[in-house]
């Protein structure tokens, strides 16, 4: 309800802005063009303002979808994603997505509705203590008790979300604050908040950088591990220039795929549990490892104490709590990846181009020994082949979204990524159900790009309701269901480590995914065994959404694989 | 080993909640604590007596705490070298 007041002198009825109007005004000032959300009792004032101001809200079908969509949007652009959910169940439904964003350092501002200030703590209808629940999975969270402090809180939240190491921020908004009347918020006054607080930049520690430079030049087998921090810092050109100037091979993580083009001779592929043979052997063999913006996650450094055993390790990260957390490093620098790389470029200018021919030859030999490959099988469609075919059909330039499981790893191995922000996947939390809503967010963020979602038959059922959003907004997203009729990745672990006791991982029947997509008004088809490539090409030739189901072998394994706790060079499936 | 962690934090609702969560998650028990606001009431200084074995874990924890938006500073002080603060902590407790 819009607040109205009779002006004392004239008796004229004035329409007043509420806290919610102020909030939307602030979002506009933060260049927020759209939000992802779902209404409810506690956010009635907020959605009333959305209605009155015709603010662009993408109405998802489940709050988890809202957060994943905002993550997809943020990942595709580097901008902050914004979410509105109601109190209680709306807020708790958002929790998985918030945790996902925390682990993958994705900037989000999530507004959760809350019961009125007077009712807080009284077990009011749909009241939960979302601040306590989200404390460990947010960079910061706020509950606003005074409508007049809303603008400052919002500006701070956006600054916190995007600055340093990005991450999610929650603003809990009691209903009476959302509908409250601010003292005197003329737009002139709101302008004050346009001035962002100056972000404190870390100064690059020159002494440490000099040592890194020295170690680098001494190294015979140097290696760069470039993580998500390089993408977050917009340091791709610097990384590529630096690698090429000194002939430095580069390994990526799952979420940083695209830091180097797949075709670059210096790029060894993704490292870690399902990484390439040469990348993992390079970890084992290198004598100097420069990690820029990766957190040595246990899916990458599968055995921390045996990781890079012959290397002097240097670690550059914007978040100093990552330094020395997992791997003992000789040199560590808390700095923005771009600043550090720029320092290295500037301070190595006079150095002649370095060559590491022997080392590169060795890496090359490893790649030849165990190139990425899969066995073609008569009478079946191989998931790896489908992924490679999609690469060809999209000129290797599509924005690729995945869900979680085997298909995710096959995509990481077989789609030839070439640019940053190209892969959108749940890395740290490994959240099944992430893919479909994230693809929606990505498509809305970069409509000019082809957006392709690869998803398993398990994961699609976790957020399948979001197909309705694709229909409603007529988004051109290609959805490829790689159907192995099992919870493939868990089944793979059971086969390898639990003597094939396939407990609860084989679906006893499935919905008809083709009919399901049709029920949502989306074109769908199953790839025929014969001429599936032609069928796929037809699908990609059209500028409309499609669900494509590929029946793939049920018991295909993702290889190489490092068993958990084993060192990186102990890869299975490469003999 | 017992350690004393001294943190200066913003004087606002919820800072301790976040802080203790970081300890709980790492299975660290707080054995005693004292908290006081600064004279201008803008900040609080909190001292915690906790047990933490590894020195690298100490450094990591300090950094994790320091990066919290509402934490202004966090420092370890060795109870052996700083009997006074340990004593202050304990004497604070004895009052109650
Ligand atoms: C929300 C959630 N629940 C459970 C898991 C554990 N898990 C990881 S992969 C996987 C199987 C996924 O199966 P599917 O979606 O069919 O993909 P596939 O591995 O077969 O490609 C499961 C259950 C998870 N990652 N996320």
What do you see in this structure?
The complex is a heterodimer of chains A (575) and B (96). Chain A is of the alpha/beta class and 575 residues long. Chain A has 21 helices and 22 strands. Chain A folds into 3 domains: 3-192, Thiamin diphosphate (ThDP)-binding fold, Pyr/PP domains (Rossmann fold, 3-Layer(aba) Sandwich); 206-369, Rossmann fold; 383-559, Thiamin diphosphate (ThDP)-binding fold, Pyr/PP domains (Rossmann fold, 3-Layer(aba) Sandwich), CATH 3.40.50. Chain A is globular, with a radius of gyration of 25 Å. Chain B has helices at residues 15-25, 55-66, 83-94; strands spanning 2-10, 30-37, 43-51, 71-77. Chain B is built from 3 helices and 4 strands. In chain B, strands 2-3-1-4 form a 4-stranded antiparallel beta sheet, sandwiched between helices. The two termini of chain B are 26 Å apart. The interface between A and B is medium-sized, with 16 and 17 residues. The complex binds thiamine diphosphate (TPP).
CATH class categorisation of chain B: Alpha Beta
Intertermini distance of chain A:
69 Å
What would CATH call the architecture of chain B? 2-Layer Sandwich
Question: Care to count the β-strands of chain A?
Answer: 22
Overall tally of domains of chain B: 1
Query: What is the level-2 CATH architecture name of the largest domain in chain A?
Result: 3-Layer(aba) Sandwich
What summary fits the major beta sheet of chain A?
Answer: 6 strands, parallel
Give the number of DSSP strands of chain B. Answer: 4
**Overall pLDDT of chain A, averaged?**
94
SSE run of chain B: EHEEHEH
The percentage of residues in β strands of chain A lies in: 15-25%
Give the helix tally of chain B: 3
Spans of chain B of at least 5 consecutive residues whose pLDDT stays below 50 are none
Q: Whole-Å distance between the termini of chain B?
A: 26 Å
- Which class do the helix and strand fractions of chain B yield? alpha+beta
Query: What is the radius of gyration of chain B computed over CA atoms, rounded to a whole number of angstroms?
Result: 13 Å
